[in-house]
Amino acid sequence: MKNKSNLLLLSALLGGLLFSFLFWKERLALNLLIYSVYILIITYVNPDIIKSQKFKIYGATHLLAAFLVLINNSDLSLVSYYISLLLFIGYSHNQKIRTVFTSFGAAILQMVTVPLNAIKTLAEVKIGNFNFKPVFKLVKYVFIPLVIVTIFTCLYSAANSVFAHYAETILTSISELIENTIGLLFKDLSALRFIHFCLGLLVTSGLVIAFFDKSLQNAESNCKEQLLRVRKNAKYKSIWRELLSTFSFSLLDKKLALKTEYITALISFIALNILLLLLNSIDIVTIWFGYKPSGNFSADLHDGTNALIFSIAMAMGIIIYFFRGNLNFYSKSKTLRFLAFVWMLQNLILIVSVFIRDGYYIEFYGLTYKRIGVIIFAILCIIGLTTVYLKVSKQKTLFYLLKVNGNIWFALLLAFSVVNWDVFIAKYNLSQQTKISLDAGYLLTLSDKTLPILEKNREKLHFTEGTDINDRTYAKPETAEFYQHQLDMRISFFKERYKKVSWLSWNLQDWKTAEYFNIPNKN
């Protein structure tokens, strides 16, 4: 225990120093990969961590995410990096966890309880015959009153401007005293750099020091994947059941409650199937075959797509609700199950309509992140409906849905992070310039990695007027000179930014852009 505590505290301290060295005034790139390798090594050498298959898989996926940041350096790759890091930490310290959602929650809990974790670890440290336990008993008497005083100081400051002035004066004096002390002891260390080091120390501590309370992991262990018929005890009533009973006029207390729920679900699914059949028929006739834009078709496509996506999500929610419990085992549930399957099939047809609508939008206006997002969300809906089908047909629980979908979503997040979307969007829109109303303004908002492509296609960066069948324009024009000026400014900003950072900010996309414009890096 002594050696383990010393190792973790030393690792946290070194991690704070490494964090400050890697990220101080740098962009997120190669430095993230170096920091991840450090965290992976420290977690691996921790004797309390079991080197299971799950540990290896999520360690490898996080390393992949770190490499994707280095290669693509996109916002999506950064999101993948942070999520994969938290999942790795959550699974490493709580290996009985089965879903990515619980693992993510466990990692967040570990991060926000850094002071408690650090105090507990410090209390176990021994240097010769000296230990820190008596010291932390005194800290407890100071820490809680300090937190309370801080909270009420903020409240009183908000209520009284004179009090706020005095409080600000005192805090400023304390801040100056700390800054002068740091400057006296460490001449080359600024107060901001010291705060940055403290941030790194907190982050590293949260990643390497485990949260001692395993209640989240233990709570999840009670969750089952297979539905079981539960016979309710009429004498026992939970607060939740009492509340439902009150608002359902005691219907839940009647012997025919299950039959009542079955009839309600049957009527609902019959009505919903008829309603969706009507909508799908209209979409097939008007959207699938021979679609011709009319009026404000941009708004029609946009609003229609949003409504359909919301309705599909609601459909899955309704199916999950009705098949959440004993209705799965009801003797007459075969008819209800058939109607639910038909409704799922109709929702798949609805998703095809979403794909077609989004396809028309891309045909008229080109690619954007939102339009790609619609495609991705539609794919997720197909996966969701498939897993809901398995839930109903195999009598699975909501926990099963969360487990399966969580793993699939995480895998897709990593897969989509492989694609360099900014470059893909720019190349596609510029190649379709004669067919779409090119939004040059949007292309100029994409990341710096698209600058070489835009530079090669300067002559295409102008307004391409597009009209509907009523000869009304559906894009706002800007002059070609305006777009040329915007591009020149973007290139100038990139050159200035690239010269300021060191090798720690190296990433493949910035390097390619710098090579194209022959920009030397002073570092």
From TrEMBL:
The entry's keywords: Membrane, Transmembrane, Transmembrane helix
Name of protein: DUF4173 domain-containing protein
Claim: Membrane is one of the keywords in the record: yes
Segments forming a coiled coil: none
Superkingdom as given in the UniProt entry: Bacteria
TM annotation in the entry: 7-24, 30-50, 62-91, 97-118, 138-159, 194-212, 262-289, 304-323, 335-356, 372-392, 404-424
Pfam families in alphabetical order: DUF4153 (PF13687)
InterPro entries documented for this protein: DUF4153
